[in-house]
Amino acid sequence: MSGAAELTPSPAPPTAGLSEAEAQRRLQARGPIRREAGSRSYASIVRSNVFTVFNAILAGFGIVTLVFADWRDALFLGILVANTAIGITQEVRAKRALDRLALLVAPRATVVRDGAARQVAPEEVVEGDLVRLQAGDQIVVDGEVVAATDLRLDESILTGESEPITRGAGDTVHSGAFVVEGSGEIVVTAVGDDSYAQRLLGEARAFRHPRSPLEVAVNRLLLALVGLVVVLGAILGYALWHRQADRSEAVETAAAGVVSLVPEGLVVLVSLTYAVASLKMARRGVLAQQLNAIESLASANVVCVDKTGTLTEAALRVVATVPAAGVEPAGLEGALRRYAAASSVRNATLTAIAEALPAEGPATPDEEVPFASRRRWSAVRLGDETLVLGAPERFDLGPLEADAARERDRGRRVVAIASTPAPAQEGPDGAPPPGCRVLGLVVLAERLRPQTRDTVEFLLSQNVEIKVLSGDNPQTVAAIAADAGIPVGEVLTGADLPQDPGLLRETVQRVGVVGRVAPEDKRRFVEALRESGRYVAMIGDGVNDVPALKASRLAIAQGTGAQMARGVSDLVLVNGDFAAVPALVAEGRQTLRNLQRVARLYVTKSSFAAFLILVIGITSTAYPLLPRHFSLAAALTIGIPTFFLALAPSTGPWRPDGFGRNVAAFALPAGVLTGVGVVASYLFALYDLDLDVTEARTTATTVLVAVGLYLVVELERSSRGARGRLLVSGMCALLGLGYVLTLVLPFARDFFDLALPSVAIGLTAAGGAAISIAAIWLARLPATATGDGDGPAG
User: Which of 251, 313, 386, 472 sits at 20 to 30 Å (Cα–Cα) from 279?
Assistant: First the structure.
């Protein structure tokens, strides 16, 4: 709203609403409404784990193998089922924990029954209820406005309209909208399935930030692997058809070649790791409304924070009142008491004033203008006097200017109260009513949250920049930021931010604190950081933070903040604890590190399988490995190790930059060099030692297992401490022992169609493994992600 605003009368005295007995009768007659969970549904979890491209490929080859070949070669179907079951189980566990946590921050409705206001869950609201609205509330029902004071709604979630809409008496409002400014009362006309948002079938009901860097990288990798499967599968199929292989051999070879190309556990591991990370954070009181949010936070290199409620405790306290010249202290305090008693909308400032200067009883203003960030003042009219409370910059303070500046420099919040005979009406460009005479100042103090300095120190040590965006005075904000340990740099007001996009992008790089910043300027600041290539996280708790939260790559809301802020956020700090952020960053970076490492093993397997198809598959030589051999080797060298390694503590570089390139730099040569040892030993055993095919395949399988376990140890050498490396080595030794038992035990040996190792098999396998291991060692493959430490990319 700009220019002269239309006079907005204060609402009539609240009606009694329904009686509690009538509300309960209507509730019973309507029946219960199911609370909709904010997390993924059970059906969605099952679909995402079952219906994938790779599962379809594996299932198709499994069915063909069961029908036309040896059923033992369909062992990979069991691995497929196990992977899927593990993924579903862990995601369901995470969902239940998140749903329990979500109840703590779920929206509530303030209903008036029997003349008294109380909060109830949305499913307890009935048609005919009188619901009160305040800034930050989410509207959870449809209704008709019966009273409004400067009521402005964000209906973008329903209509796509980004600008707030003014609503007055007689207007219809819909569930899903948020109250941006003002207050009001509505009479409920529809709830549950009959409400407007439900009839839209959920379209645009949830705001979602873009996919995380790791998600984008993994999706690209999987798309490339799908293309590889199609191309090499076609080549292998043509080769088998051209040489007229019999049906059983063709099925076995095709299954061995194509199935081994599929990274069957990688998709499950990504979902599993996200779910476990979310479960861990839920136990710390952090609600992940997007499963990728914790990993996304690890990628952030700039964190924008609001001052009040994030760096400082949300509660304020009055430490002093400073009367203007000619105003008695009792007169100033009396004006503050009357204002606090008459205001229908309470924020932190008014709550502190009301607690310090309680009035004898409530008062009803004749007119009221609620506080709004864009104008930075509010007003109530009592009889022939209008009291205006707002930022000192909105008034002519005269001699009080020095007092206000001194307190701001000490990190205190300062507001001024003035009196005028003019109506409570907004002037041009959001100015206060004319004729304001300043009565005095109110000085309020904020306290840094516990461990704020430790949290700031941690983020700075991780090369994460912190920028403070606040509606408070810039000097006050800068003093608080400096006290928290944040490098202040250049300090500006929201009005100082350039309008030119290019200049704005340059400005946001060097500015550390912006005060007196309007919500839209916060949004512009965050968008400029994003456009300059920064990965921006925004932490906020108020309605004025919502535009910036939506513009960021990752939105984090305080659980004690406005419903609207929580509704658009990816992470909610349920306990409002800023100190939870370091644990989130550490968990996210562990997720990134571990998934990058296990992806190398899965893609190495695909690279090895592609090498075998191109070297052996297109020839008339019997394929070196049956599908069951691949299943055994993959379980011992990839499936079991990666299941534990993906969730284990780790250290080292973590950045998602160049994910596909880094994975390929390890996996392509590792797969090819593994294939060299396997093929060399297989062909030597088959043609030079005249061993039968079973013995030659035993040799090839042994080489594959030995080199695969070496790769696990090699890959993990720099990601664990000494104890971790010892545990990894011990795990690989046990897995190697498991393979030896498979060769020694008759029933296992027969099941996998392997031969009892002879001296010739043992020496040949040792030679083939030595060739591959020596080549891998000489190649100096990058075992970890490239990067210069634990700091994010600039």
Answer: 313
